[in-house]
Amino acid sequence: MESPSPFVAMHIRFDDEANKKAKRSIRTGKAEAEIDTSAAEAAAWCWDFCSNERMRIDEEKGNPARLIVGKVGFSEQRRAVIKRMPFPLSNREAVYRQILSKAGNKIIIATESIGDEVDYGRKIRRRVRLTGSNYHVFEPLSEDSSRFSIVQYLHAGGHIPAWVVNQKLPESLSVAESLREEFARDEEIDEIKRGSMAA
């Protein structure tokens, strides 16, 4: 799939014919990128779902809601988000349980949809529930670099035209691009390499 960034590889698996017959939209997406920070730092940024920066970006995109619903200890949280969809489609609501874990030297954030009802503090009309799961994997490459990958399986709550899926999928996988931009040290790394070559 065409990625909005040359530094992020994106892939999609989407069977349009099967989904039309079933009157639903199910797809799997994947994105990968190298990040100029440690796996722990990158994972902490992703875990902070409602940071000021990410709330601002969501508001600029016109998404109606983004919030942490509850936490259980250090490694589990429930979160909710409502994503704006193009007219005449209804907005999509996702309520997830998120777990932070470790496997060897990799850090994993696993997310699965849950059926909880969420009080957004105001009435939000015309929304359809999304279901699915995704996995964020952070693998150390060195002390200050890591490889990030996200695999996302999503049932869009009814049938959505393929052109909308193709438009929205890169957006839903854009955490890889946002993460890379947040920690980009291209100039610093190039300067180190130039100094090494000069020496």
Structure notes:
By secondary structure, this protein is α+β, with helices and mostly antiparallel strands. It is 29% helix and 39% strand. The protein has six helices and nine strands; from the N terminus they run βαβααβββββββααα. It has helices at 16-22, 39-47, 52-60, 162-172, 175-183, 186-198, and strands at residues 9-13, 26-35, 65-72, 76-83, 91-103, 106-113, 127-129, 131-142, 145-155. Strands 1, 2, 3, 4, 5, 6, 7, 8 and 9 form a nine-stranded mixed sheet that branches. The longest helix has 13 residues, at 186-198. It is globular and about 65 Å long. The mean pLDDT is 82.
Spell out the blueprint of helices and strands:
Layout: E1 9-13, H1 16-22, E2 26-35, H2 39-47, H3 52-60, E3 65-72, E4 76-83, E5 91-103, E6 106-113, E7 127-129, E8 131-142, E9 145-155, H4 162-172, H5 175-183, H6 186-198
First CA to last CA: what distance?
41 Å
Per DSSP, the total helix count is 6
The run of helices and strands is EHEHHEEEEEEEHHH
Mean pLDDT: 82
Flag low-confidence runs. none
Q: What are the key terms here?
A:
single chain; 199 residues; alpha+beta; 9-stranded mixed β-sheet; 6 helices; globular
